[in-house]
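I'll show a typical protein example:
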Amino acid sequence: MADYVGMAFVPYYNHLIKLLETSKELKQSAKGIFKQMAWAAGGACVGGVVGGPPGALFGTLAGGVIGFCLSDPYKATITVLKEMSEKDKKRLVEEVQKLVGANGIEALTKFIGGQVQREMLLNLIQKFVNDVKGG
């Protein structure tokens, strides 16, 4: 009986993962993409100043390659969530339930219906994942 009560968060966690797997915002794993984009944009600016439009093209390509080479390897957030310990999964569910303001799966589904709430949830999850990874 104690094991069952201790595992009561599992259906909620599984539903959360299912919702996240369908989230196009999360699929982009923005951290690595942003770094690469910043290098490409910086290369475009420098190249444009130095060589005009052809320089901007070359600078963008060079910046993109540099950004790719310098970016840290990172796991997709969903992969990190799936590989977490049971203790961390339970903590995540508790944090999400606090944000949603209810414990039911239906409330979670309703909560992510709004863009602002969806962004709040994704920010909470990204922060949680960074904390779990030690980043």
Summary: The chain has two domains: 1-27+76-135, 30-73.
